[in-house]
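Postdoc handover notes: sequence design on the structure in folder B. Input tokens:
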């Protein structure tokens, strides 16, 4: 507190007649009179003015200091929250991997025990021999020196990521998943000298070996044996095609998986379909280990649905078009036999469609590890105002930097595959699916200058509902699974390490251009006739 006594009175604040030549105050002749009180009044007014000046200045300084301090604190808090989010994401990923591994091991253990039990009853020697055979198989696999990494990626490397775990090795032998190799091609040519250095620095010159992922080519090393057929529900034509395709695939000696609902339909139609396999509840988590190829029969929604079944690695997709638009469904269902024949034989051009991994972080979460399961999206995650009539107010951060505050109907964080879906309708650019990036597209922003952005694929985005938000926000994932975000909650989003490899009809670029021409009639205009005015 600043006391009035402690404030020095400026000499000019005294009436000039009361100041002697030395600047000292003298006694007034009207000491107790009216003049005295009047002059006192004026000087007090002047004093008050002076008191107020340094006082206001002081408060302002304090406020500035205080708000600086608050800003530093909020920055530190934000950084801590982001650290927490990424730690949570990493922890849940490790937890998922651990659970998968544990499940896989215990299943295999049961299988091995069961087979030992069976054979042990008949002939113990046989068991010994089969164990030796397994060991030899593993050894020969290791000795065969499968080329690694240099000219592409081998699916063995993914399957054999835990070589010290013999159960895992035996397991991959038992399920006999087809192995394949991915090549990166350049200008339509296969480039066996695919370099893994992104930037090299030779003789002082910076060169970029790769600026994007180029056209990718998949070559089967062993023939695919198991096909998962996923279908759009409640469609008679899809049901009919599914039954026909399953028969055809069976003739080709392939194992076939369908959804439980579809298996029931097929078996009800004819007991012939008893060979068709399906899964129960949690077994779906291990589907990627059994399936070599996923065929979808429907529109883009069916591709999104199929992708959502794989929370981790995804086998190659072959999407057949049975919808109205079909941006991600390049194959014609009428020619399914020829298409599948050529795909089962390979090689196939594929588009690696990247997915976004989304985490909802609740303000109410008590511990670091109390996080909701991550959700993977192939198109986009949307944060909007739902049924609320208030503007959304969303604070957006990219890594450690503040991006902006979205005030409008909401925000779309989209993959490049999703750039032709909701993001396009909200004014975002159409982006080739192989361009590595995340689209940041506002929905009806209440601002004239809010243009959509495209951010690099390596960033982590954090969308925070501020505490002073008037309403709740809602997140939806590929148009589904709406989750409410209360003030203080956040959505953290980054590129997933598990893309969806989709087979191309031609190549990635050809398919993309074909879909925007056919699907959206992009830049369709009658050509101006030659018959008219011309430059002379
Ligand atoms: N205003 C909009 O344009 C709007 C609004 C809501 C949802 N959507 C989109 O719908 C998607 C969900 O699709 P659904 O089939 O389950 O719902 P749906 O049945 O409502 O169909 C939405 C339409 O979007 C098309 N579509 C989906 N993904 C696409 C893509 N990557 N490129 C071009 N078009 C695409 C579909 O072909 C379909 O015609 C969401 O991911 C979202 O992108 C768009
Ligand atoms: N196997 C499935 N199980 C449950 N829902 C599914 C399945 N396949 C698709 N869907 C859902 O059905 C809806 C419609 O699917 P899809 O987009 O493939 O067909 P469509 O609407 O006829 O195609 P288009 O949008 O191109 O006209 C989508 O919301 C999708 O999520």
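Designed sequence:
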């Amino acid at each position: 507190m600043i006391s009035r006594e402690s404030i020095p009175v400026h000499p000019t604040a005294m009436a000039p007649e009361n100041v002697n030549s030395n600047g000292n105050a003298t006694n007034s002749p009207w000491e107790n009179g009216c003049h005295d009180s009047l002059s006192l009044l004026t000087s007090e007014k002047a004093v008050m003015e002076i008191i107020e000046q340094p006082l206001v200045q002081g408060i302002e300084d304090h406020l500035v200091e205080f708000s600086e301090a608050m800003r530093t604190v909020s920055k530190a808090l934000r950084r801590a929250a982001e650290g927490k989010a990424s730690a949570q994401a990493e922890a849940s990923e490790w937890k998922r991997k651990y659970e998968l591994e544990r499940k896989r091991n215990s299943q295999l253990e049961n299988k091995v025990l069961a087979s030992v039990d069976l054979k042990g009853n008949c002939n113990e020697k046989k068991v010994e021999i089969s164990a030796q055979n397994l060991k030899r198989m593993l050894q020969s696999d290791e000795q065969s020196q499968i080329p690694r990494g240099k000219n592409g990626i081998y699916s063995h490397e993914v399957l054999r990521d835990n070589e010290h775990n013999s159960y895992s090795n035996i397991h991959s032998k038992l399920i006999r998943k087809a192995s394949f190799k991915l090549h990166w091609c350049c200008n339509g040519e296969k480039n066996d000298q695919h370099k893994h250095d992104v930037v090299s620095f030779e003789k002082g010159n910076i060169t970029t070996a790769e600026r994007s992922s180029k056209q990718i080519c998949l070559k089967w090393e062993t023939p695919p044996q198991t096909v998962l057929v996923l279908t759009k529900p409640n469609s008679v034509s899809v049901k009919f095609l599914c039954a026909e395709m399953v028969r055809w695939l069976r003739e080709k000696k392939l194992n076939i998986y369908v959804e439980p609902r579809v298996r029931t339909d097929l078996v009800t139609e004819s007991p012939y379909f008893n060979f068709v396999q399906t899964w129960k509840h949690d077994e779906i988590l291990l589907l990627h280990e059994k399936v070599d190829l996923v065929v979808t029969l429907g529109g883009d929604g069916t591709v999104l649905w199929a992708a959502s079944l794989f929370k981790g690695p995804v086998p190659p997709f072959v999407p057949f078009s049975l919808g109205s638009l079909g941006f991600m469904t390049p194959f014609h269902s009428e020619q399914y036999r020829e298409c599948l024949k050529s795909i089962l034989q390979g090689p196939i051009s594929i588009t690696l469609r990247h997915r976004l991994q989304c985490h909802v972080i609740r303000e109410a979460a008590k511990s670091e590890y109390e996080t909701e399961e991550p959700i993977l999206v192939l198109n986009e995650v949307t944060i909007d105002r739902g049924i609320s009539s208030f503007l959304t107010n969303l604070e957006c951060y990219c890594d450690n930097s503040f991006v902006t505050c979205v005030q409008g109907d909401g925000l779309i964080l989209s993959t490049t595959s999703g750039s032709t879906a909701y993001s396009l309708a909200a004014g975002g650019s159409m982006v080739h699916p192989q361009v590595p990036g995340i689209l940041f597209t506002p929905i009806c922003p209440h601002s004239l200058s809010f243009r959509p952005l495209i951010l690099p694929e390596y960033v982590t985005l954090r969308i925070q509902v501020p505490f002073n938000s008037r309403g709740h926000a809602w997140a939806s994932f590929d148009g589904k699974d709406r989750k409410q975000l209360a003030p203080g909650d956040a959505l953290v989003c980054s590129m997933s390490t598990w893309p969806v490899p989709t087979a191309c009809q031609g190549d990635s670029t050809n398919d993309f251009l074909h879909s925007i021409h056919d699907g959206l009639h992009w830049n369709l205009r009658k050509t101006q006739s030659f018959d008219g005015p011309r430059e002379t």
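Context for whoever picks this up: The longest strand covers residues 401-414. Don't rerun without checking with the PI first.
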